[in-house]
Design a protein that fits this description.
Blueprint: E1 5-7, E2 12-14, E3 17-21, H1 23-29, H2 39-48, E4 53-56, H3 67-80, E5 85-90, H4 96-103, E6 107-110, H5 130-142, E7 146-151, H6 155-163, E8 168-172, H7 174-179, H8 185-201, E9 205-209, H9 217-223, E10 227-232, H10 234-243, H11 245-258
Parallel strand pairs: 3-4, 3-10, 4-5, 5-6, 6-7, 7-8, 8-9, 9-10
Antiparallel strand pairs: 1-2
Helix pairs in contact: 2-3, 6-8, 10-11
Bound molecules: 1-deoxy-D-xylulose-5-phosphate and the ligand NCC(=O)COP(=O)(O)O.
1-deoxy-D-xylulose-5-phosphate (DXP) binds near residues 21, 119, 209 and 233.
């Protein structure tokens, strides 16, 4: 069983924080010039329902989250939800740093995506990426922003992630999600457990994300130690289309709580 984890933001014992990724609300909004569904309204409702954070991934092509969304969400959180963590994801060698320098979110998650990439599908390559990552990690931390590196679950890479200055890693969980419910689930999950243990041993915090959902979340959190934050978007917003935002958030929080019995 994973230990309960002191939440850095609230200084309280809490299980894994749920950070809701709003990319897909913006994707639907962008298909008409009507401004609905509202990204900021979605943020307010999911936070009211018990979400612990907000995540956005403002891709350079603005297919979903636009620059205006990033700033409007920053203002909403600053005004109404000052203790809620804002996590902005992106490639620091594309447009991410423009947002980090102005918004100064609680966390920046560096993702090595190409500009037109269909979706995120791999982590950083360490040591190959160390030389170019080091200065931008240092700049981000000097701005008071926590740095999380989007990483494949490779135990040997975790010490290098710490050495390049990362505060946390976000384990890319698509391979787990694809294996969930198949005979390979235990084997794949063991790889994530080893990667998380290596990250913790290196002094890193552990986040996780990509293709997590209500079915696979609890099994992941039961097996993988010390997960401080899961960022979930695609499946959660799909669920909200059927259940509504409030019921969906409560369902995901139930899945998280189920991983921490007692
Ligand atoms: C980094 C990651 O796995 C996701 O946070 C990413 O935001 C997904 O991007 P799309 O929503 O554009 O697929
Ligand atoms: N970092 C993962 C994230 O923010 C959302 O990923 P997904 O749930 O949309 O696959």
């Amino acid at each position: 069983m994973n230990p309960l984890i002191a939440s850095e933001a609230a200084g309280r014992l809490a299980p894994t924080a749920l950070s809701v990724n709003l990319n897909k609300v913006a994707l639907l909004r962008n298909t008409r010039h009507l401004g609905i569904p509202s990204v900021t309204r979605a943020a307010g409702i999911v936070l009211q329902a018990g979400a612990n954070g907000i995540t956005v991934h403002p891709r350079p092509d603005e297919r979903h989250i636009r620059g205006s969304d990033v700033h409007e969400l920053a203002e909403l959180l600053r005004r109404d939800w000052p203790h809620i963590e804002y996590n902005i994801e992106g490639n620091p060698f594309h447009n991410l740093m423009d947002f980090v320098r102005v918004v100064r979110p609680a966390q920046a998650t560096f993702v090595p995506d190409a500009e037109g990439q269909f979706t995120s599908d791999h982590g950083w390559q360490l040591p190959a990426d160390i030389e170019r990552l080091a200065p931008v990690i240092a700049e981000t931390k000097a701005l008071g922003v926590r740095v999380s590196l989007f990483m494949d679950p490779i135990p040997e890479a975790m010490k290098l992630a710490r050495e390049v200055g990362a505060d946390r890693v976000e384990l890319y969980t698509e391979t787990y999600a694809s294996a969930w419910g198949t005979p390979r689930q235990a084997e794949v999950l063991a790889g994530f457990t080893a990667a998380a243990e290596a990250a913790l041993a290196a002094g890193l915090g552990v986040n996780a994300g990509h293709d997590l959902n209500r079915d696979n979340l609890a099994d992941f959190l039961r097996a993988v130690p010390g997960v401080q934050e899961v960022s979930i978007g695609h499946a959660l917003i799909a669920d909200a289309l059927e259940l509504g935002y409030t019921a969906t958030i409560r369902d995901y929080q139930r899945c998280i709580a189920a991983a921490y019995p007692g």
